């Protein structure tokens, strides 16, 4: 049995392209660096006071609460819609389309969409956003590393080399070579 994974929290908003970069890099490195990556959907407007992603982030919060195994895929699909295909992520039909494209059933997606206005989901997103602020967030993404009973907050998607250093790991660029890759 190997060493226990170290915990990293990634606070992000799909309206932030820099959050997307950090998200993709950390998803690629989570097995290489033996980290437990905790995805923390946050509301950038709660930090920066001007954003249009509230419905999408509430939806991701509901996904996190009820289907956490789908959070990475649904987050990625929302980023693909807004930043790769210039598609909307604010309207319910757009959010449903993203969830379904990510592999969620139509029934699951609709059920979660119905919950985005509930106090439970609203409060969870507010708590997560407040947690990011308590760590010192002034924008997104932030990555919080919990190492040796210390907390390290790194802002931005351009701090991965520093994160690797903190973890005592090797930085191999934004797309690490596949382990046991065949040519």
Summarize the structure.
By secondary structure, the protein is an alpha+beta fold. The chain has helices at about 15-30, 45-50, 55-65, 70-85, 90-100, 105-115, 120-135, 160-165; strands at about 5-10, 35-40, 140-145, 150-155.
Question: How would you characterize this protein structure?
Answer:
Strands 2-1-3-4 form a four-stranded mixed beta sheet. The protein has helices at 17-29, 44-48, 54-66, 71-84, 92-101, 106-114, 119-134, 160-167, and strands at residues 6-12, 35-41, 142-147, 150-155. Strand 1 (6-12), helix 1 (17-29) and strand 2 (35-41) form a beta-alpha-beta unit. Helix 3 packs antiparallel against helix 4, helix 3 (54-66) crosses helix 7 and helix 5 (92-101) crosses helix 6 (106-114). It is α+β, with helices and mostly antiparallel strands. It is built from eight helices and four strands; from the N terminus they run βαβααααααββα. The protein has a single domain (6-167), classed as Glutaredoxin (3-Layer(aba) Sandwich), CATH 3.40.30.10. The two termini are 30 Å apart. Its EC number is 2.5.1.18. It is an enzyme of class 2 (transferase). Pfam families: DSBA (PF01323).
């Amino acid at each position: 049995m190997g060493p226990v994974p170290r915990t990293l929290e990634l606070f992000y908003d799909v309206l932030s392209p820099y959050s997307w970069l950090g998200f993709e890099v950390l998803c690629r490195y989570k097995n290489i660096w033996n980290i437990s990556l905790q995805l923390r959907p946050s509301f950038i407007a709660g930090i920066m006071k001007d954003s249009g992603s509230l419905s999408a982030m509430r939806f991701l919060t509901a996904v996190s609460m009820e289907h956490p195994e789908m959070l990475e895929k649904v987050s990625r699909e929302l980023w693909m819609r807004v930043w790769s295909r210039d598609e909307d992520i604010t309207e319910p039909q757009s959010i449903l389309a993203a969830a379904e494209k990510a592999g969620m059933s139509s029934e699951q997606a609709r059920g979660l969409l119905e919950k985005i206005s509930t106090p439970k989901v609203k409060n969870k997103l507010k708590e997560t956003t407040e947690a990011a602020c308590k760590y010192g967030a002034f924008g997104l993404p932030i990555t919080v590393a919990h190492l040796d009973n210390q907390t390290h907050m790194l802002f931005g998607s351009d701090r991965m080399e520093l994160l690797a250093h903190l973890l005592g790991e090797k930085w191999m660029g934004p797309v690490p070579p596949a382990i046991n890759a065949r040519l």
